[in-house]
Amino acid sequence: MSAFLTFTVIGVVVGCIYAITACGLVVTYATSGVFNFAHGAQGMFAAWVYWQLTVDWGWPTWLGFLAVVGVLAPLLGAAIERLLIRPVRGRSVDVSLVVTLGLLLFLVGMSNLVWKQTVIRTLPQLFDGKYVKVGGFNVSYHQVIVLVAAVLIAVTLRLFFERTRAGITMRAAVDNPTLVAMAGSNPDSVQRSAWVLGSVLASIAGVLLAPIVQLTVTQLTLLVINGYAAAVVGRLRSLPWTVGGAMLVGLGTSYTVGYGHSDLLLDIQLVIPMIVLFVVLVVIPAATLRGTQTRTFSDRRTAGATTTGIGLGALVLAVVVLAPVLPHTLVTHGSRALGFGIVLLSLVLLTGYGGMVSLCQLTFAGLGAYAMSHVGGAGGNPLGLVVAAALAGAVGALVALPTLRLRGLYLALATLAFAQAMDTVFFTKVFGSGGSFEVARPRLPLLPRGDRSYLVELAVAFGLAAATLLAVRRGRLGRRLGAVDDSPAACATLGLSLPATKLLVFGASAALAGIGGALLVAVPGQGSNNDFLALSSAALLLVARIGGITSVSGALLGGIFMAGMPALQQEVPQLGEYQLTFLLTGLGAVALARQPDGIAADLARAFRRRFPTPAPAPLPALELPTHVELAEVPVQEGHVVLSVAGVSVRFGGVQALTDVSLEARAGTVTGIIGPNGAGKTTLFNVMTGLQRPDSGHVLLGGIDVSKAATHKRARLGLARTFQRLEVFGSLTVLDNVRAAAEIRHGRAGQLDMAEAALRRVGIEHLAGIPAHRLPTGQARLLELARALVTQPRVLLLDEPASGLSHEESLELAVVIRSVAAEGVAAVLVEHDVDLVMRLCSTVHVLDFGDVISSGDPVDVQSDDRVRAAYLGDEAVVAVA
Amino acid sequence: MTTPVLELRNVRAGYGDLQVLRGVDLVVPSASVVALLGPNGAGKSTALAVIGGRVPASSGCVHVDGHHVNGARPEDLVSSGVCQIPEGRGVFPNLTVVENLRIWTHCTDQSLHEVEEVAYARFPRLQERRTQLAGTLSGGEQQMLALARALLGSPRLLLLDEISMGLAPKVVAELFEVVAGLAASGIAVLLVEQFARTALAVADYGAIMSRGVITAIGQPADVADQLEGAYLGGAA
Questions:
Q1: Which residue spans within B29-117 are E strands per DSSP?
Q2: Are β-strands B59-64 and B6-15 bridged in parallel, bridged antiparallel, or unpaired?
Q3: Is A372 in contact with A388 (CB distance < 8 Å)?
Q4: pLDDT tens across A494-513, in order?
Q5: How is A300-335 classified by DSSP, letter by letter?
């Protein structure tokens, strides 16, 4: 019994500390949308400064605590918010997270530099040596203080967020920062306060935790990753659930250590946080596919095949020429640079092309090296490389699997937890702490042996990998990845299953990293578990970003950096291992906040300034047949293709739709109009699959699709356009339509279908222009072409005239009418009543979720109920 | 001639390539109610967004009480006496009624207690629902909570963006009674409305906006004739 109590107390105490730090994480994430990967490092840093003040310089404990928690932490939090977080507000996850990763590495590097780890230091527990007897066993004062502190913090946070205006405003800012501004508070100040609060909580956790576990730099930082699981249990927004999750992790770990008699259980204890994290990830409901917020698109310039061939050929040639004459150290460094370059290419594929984040790429590299070591043997059997790719790829797929339906941030968390777990369990077990393993170079028959020829082989390998990547980018998968990155919502409506694509890319990237790892470790021939540390993976991602994540040359630059840093450290031994890398990459993070596209982008820009290309030609004017009277285009009514029957929807306490029924026939244009708030959007969402009806059915070609997901309806012949444009901004006009054709019809290329679709809407002369440059009118036509190439039976148009001039909307109407004439059933939701009346053969008017009028446009227009709905009930005239 | 509370001169604005306001001229005299009407897509909400500092004007001027406010942020405009209630409900749905009111105290020197007194005096129903989440209130009650902000801190100008959206006519009538009362107490009101006739009934002036410019302005009776043409097009 007493053993149980002891373990419980320990578990609760550790859980309390995780709770304190995880709450800080949740607060900053909830208010700014940025997940602070450096949170644990801030705690570690606070612990070390506290040690410095109270142990090394002999300050009284209370003063040291006050200085760290009351002065240092708030200043650090405010500085971080101002310098790192505010500049990247609104950018995608893979940008905002590298900024905090950079901070993490910077703090780790700096701490290692200032407090060399060669000497073991300890931070004494508070009131060290004093105990309290509880029910027959001892609880140390420190543990009591932790418990009391946790309770105090929980109570204070609750009071703060429930009772004070500042706290309530912080919660409000999560929902609606604009409304917060309208109520008189500066949203920037609110965010700064949140980060100050988070920093203070991190520092308290660090100062309390360090005396219980060891005072180290890396381990202490990574221990806090255990807190991530707690934050995820809280869905990154609920403090009570976060605390619960923290207790779960703390107690789970404690009991496993306490009761674990076999070695296996002892090891499992180290990965319990990761297990909790993965279990929670599987259980969390999928993220809804919102449309893209305002995004910046850049032209995806991919070098043509000839340029690629020349560039990479030149690289290989240069290596061949230089290999015999370079000094031996440079041969080694060059080989390692190329090895790292290949691993970095896997990140170019994953993050640059695919927009996903991995914080365990070096772990995959390590798995690849491990496979090569066992299968390749001493003789360097090239089969080892194949196994390396297979093993790393398979493991990668497994790691990514639980997160595919979720936001990209969760993939980052999962990979980091995985990397840390592998560090502590797999690599130490397999290679022993500080142990090493042998990896032989793959031997192909007839090729010469030796370091210099290996250098050439690596150059060829890099060249092949890079060329393959670029070919992929130009081809079907590249288009698809660009499309998924630009608009996942649009891809779903085209019938693309996003998880499958993501899984493929993640697995391929892991496999490539595995190959790179095997080749890299084979340079010295020996690897140790220190080569694949979780923090090094974080550094790798950062280096890739700084170099330029979408470019092959960026990968090469990064590789040179990764190989060069240790070499430099050998020259300057005072800096110690990894510090320089971390410091520099950390500083790079601040630079990244200013220029998220990396050095390669800067270099490319400088190059273009020096050798300017002619300014792009102004877009050719739209050439549509004007003045084709709509009446001239005949409309043939066919059979019912889409029908909505008795649909009712209720959400948020409001009855959005009540028993709505309508039909759309082939060859006709049906219009849905009504005042704002009438339910048009809800009805549209019911038809497209974004909203499930509470009752009633949606039938597509006779098949009940009421519960079918969007991409399934797409496969049954439903296509749609968006009110807020969802073109694939970074692809050309032609590629937009090609990507859609490929997604829908499966084969690569589909060039002629795409060109035909462009001709159909009249924009074939814009084929080579990047879509983000199109003005609204032409972008709407592009969306229409993209929808048409899927050969739909039903075409749903969401406010297609939105943002168009009167003339443009009439031109669009001509195209829509002619498309319908070919047999498609077009249904449009519109505010432009005039347009709808001209274009549609049937009109339905919604008001307060009811269909109040249906039929011929002329009849509907003169219906009194319709007038009342739009202009306000005559009978209701408020008297002032 | 007293300075108008709000004046827009040749204001242009848009989003990226999209030009929404194409030269808007508008005046809201003090203590008057101006109804800004017109079909969707005309730019009415954008006009309010520009006045309220949420969207920058690419050219032209916006003056509040004679002061140039181009480029001011929403939180700065609060101290200039501008109270804006945005489209959708102007409340925080995940906070309770009293928590919402506590946030509104930022606009005034009054304490929470005083603010609650004022709000409940005007809207007794809110007191019954004091600890209820604002998102679970009925649409009309939410708008009343939003309008409570206009009762605090003596604003000079109230900007209302479609407060009637999704509400039943009876509730709309109640809300407009409140708006009329606010105007009577000296606050100038610029309201954007879909339900034109209901809005014109409380307004001193009506302005019809279409495709980014004001096409008609005048007394409600004069403007009412042009409404159907603007909204429903074709044969009126």
A1: 33-37, 59-64, 67-68, 82-85
A2: antiparallel
A3: yes
A4: 888 888 888 999 999 999 99
A5: -----HHHHHHHHHHHHHHHHHHTTTS-HHHHHHHH
pTM: 0.79
Edge-to-edge strand order for the sheet containing B67-68?
A: B18-28, B6-15, B59-64, B67-68
Mean pLDDT calculated for residue range A130-159: 84
- Which burial class, exposed, middle or buried, applies to B132 when counting CB atoms under 10 A from its CB (0-12, 13-18, 19+)? middle
- As beta bridge partners, residue A438 has A526
* DSSP 8-class letter at A117: T
Helix (H, G, I), strand (E, B) or coil at A620: coil
Closest CA to A236 of A39, A420, A75: A39
Within 10 A of A449 (CB to CB), how many other CB atoms are there? 10
Q: Residue A623: count other Cβ atoms within 10 Å of its Cβ.
A: 10
Interface contact A179-B92, CB threshold 8 A? yes
Q: What is the 3-state secondary structure (H, E, C) of A551-579?
A: CHHHHHHHHHHHHHHHHHHHHCHHHCCCH
Say whether B86 and A185 touch across the interface (CB within 8 A).
Answer: no
Contact residues on chain B for A877, CB-CB shorter than 8 A: 197-198, 201
ipTM for this prediction: 0.91
User: What is the spatial distance between Cα B140 and Cα B126, in angstroms, rounded to a whole number?
Assistant: 11
Q: What are phi and psi of A850, to 5 degrees?
A: -110, 150
Q: Could you tell me if B172 lies within 8 Å of chain A, comparing CB atoms? A: yes
For residue A34, CA distances in Å to A174, A661, A831 come to 12, 44, 37
B74 and A175 in contact by Cβ < 8 A? no
Please spell the DSSP secondary structure of A436-488, one letter per residue.
Answer: EEE-PPP--TT---SHHHHHHHHHHHHHHHHHHHHHHHHSHHHHHHHHHHH-H
Q: How many CA within 13 A on the CB side of residue A202?
A: 35
For A801, the closest chain B residue by CA position comes to: B41
State the amino acid at position A147 in one-letter form: L
Q: What single letter denotes the amino acid at residue B48?
A: L
pLDDT tens digits, one per residue of A561-610: 888 877 777 776 665 555 666 777 777 776 776 666 666 666 666 766 77
d(CA B208, CA B216): 5
The reply to whether residue A832 touches residue B39, judged by beta carbons under 8 angstroms, is yes
Over the Cα atoms of chain B, what is R_g?
A: 17
Query: Is the CB of B74 less than 8 angstroms away from the CB of A675?
Result: no
Return d(Cα A539, Cα B51) in angstroms, integer.
46
A713-732: per-residue pLDDT in tens?
888 889 988 877 788 888 88
What is the maximum alpha-carbon separation in chain A? 98
- Grade residue A74 by pLDDT with cuts at 50, 70 and 90: very high
Confirm if A589 and A106 have CB atoms less than 8 A apart. yes
Contact status, residue B188 vs residue B156, Cβ threshold 8 Å: yes
CB atoms within 10 A of CB A1: 8
Question: How confident is the model over A392-401, as pLDDT tens digits?
Answer: 999 999 999 8
| Sequential DSSP letters for B170-187 | HHHHHHHHHHHHHHHTT-
Instruction: Determine the Cα–Cα distance for residues A468 and B25; give it in Å rounded to an integer.
Output: 59
Residues 6+ apart with CB under 8 A from B105: A165, B111, B112, B115, B152
- CA pair distance A138, A831, nearest whole angstrom: 73
Residue A624's pLDDT band (boundaries 50, 70, 90)? very low
- Percent of chain A, pLDDT > 70? 87
**A473 token code pair:** 């980018």
Q: Does A834 touch chain B (CB under 8 A)?
A: yes
Q: Flag whether pLDDT at A616 surpasses 60.
A: no
